[in-house]
Amino acid sequence: MVDDEPDVTSLVAYHLRAKGYRVATLNDPNQIMGLARSFNPDLVILDVMMPDLSGTQICRMLRADPALRGVPVIFLSAKAEESARVQGLEVGADDYVCKPFSTKELVLRVQSIFRRLAEVKAGDSAVPLQIGKVTLDAEHHRVEVAGEHVELTATEFKLLRVLMERKGRVQARDHLLLNVWNYETEIETRTVDTHIRRLREKLGSEASLIETVRGVGYRMVDRKPEACLT
C-alpha cells in the first residue's frame, strides 16, 4: 500500500493483517518500483494524490513493467466525481475507492479481488475457449488474438471469460457486476462500461466481437462469415 499519510497506511495495514494478509506499506511513492519488484505483490493499493509521484503515474509504471503489469490495483482518492473515477479505471485500476473510506468496505473489495484471482487461476475447463480469432486458455491464464499473446488484468480476464462462456447471450451490467466483481456493496455500472472499453482496446481487430446491447449490457458473438461469390 502506498499513501503519503502514515496514519492511513497504518490503519489499512492493521485491518488487512487482521484478515491474514502480508502487507508492505510506503509513505514515499518514489520507492514503489523497487519495493514492488522485491515484495512481488498480489495486489497494490495506491493513493492518487501524492507529492512527486501520483497514484496514476505509478499505475502506468506498474502496467508498463512485464513482471507487474497483471497485478490488480485499487485507487484511494479524495476525488469522488465520476470523471475522476472513470479516469482511474481507464489508466488501469481494477477498483476505485473514495476518501474518506470505510476500512471494512476496503477490506471487502480486497477480498473480492482475491476471490476473482482464485476463480481465474482455478479454471473449470481444460478446453480453451475460442470466438473469432480470440482464444482464452483458462488453465494457463492466457489470451491470444490471431495467435499473438494479449496481456490482461485479472478483472479483464474474468470479464472476457464470462462473455465467451456465455457466447451470444446478453449479459446485463448488474449481472456482470455480480459475476465478475462479486461486489457486496453497491457500485456504479459505469465500471463495467470502462472495463469493456479497455478490453476492446486490447482485443484490437477482434474488438467488434463484443457487442453493446443498448440499455441492457453486452454480449460476445462470432463474426458472421463473409459472403462468397460463385
Describe the model.
The protein has 230 residues and is α+β, with helices and mostly antiparallel strands. The chain has eight helices and ten strands. The strands form three sheets. A four-stranded antiparallel sheet has the order 4-5-6-7, covered by helices on one side. The chain has a three-stranded parallel sheet with strand order 1-2-3, sandwiched between helices. Strand 2 (73-77), helix 4 (82-90) and strand 3 (95-98) form a beta-alpha-beta unit. The protein is globular, with a radius of gyration of 18 Å. The termini are far apart. Residues 225-230 have low confidence and may be disordered.
Main sheet makeup: 4 strands, antiparallel
Summarize the amount of helix as a percent range.
Answer: 40-55%
Query: Which structural category do the helix and sheet elements fall into?
Result: alpha+beta
The dominant shape is globular
Mean pLDDT metric: 86
**The CATH architecture of the largest domain:** 3-Layer(aba) Sandwich
What is the number of beta strands? 10
The CATH fourth-level homologous superfamily of the largest domain: Response regulator
Strand content: 15-25%
User: End-to-end distance, in Å?
Assistant: 63 Å
Order of helical and strand elements: HHEHEHEHEEEEHEHHEE
User: Could you say how many structural domains there are in total?
Assistant: 2
- Please compute the radius of gyration using only Cα atoms: 18 Å
Number of helices: 8
CATH class assignment of the largest domain: Alpha Beta
Order of adjacent strands in the largest pleated sheet: 4-5-6-7
Low-confidence stretches: 225-230
Question: Could you say what the CATH topology of the largest domain is called?
Answer: Rossmann fold
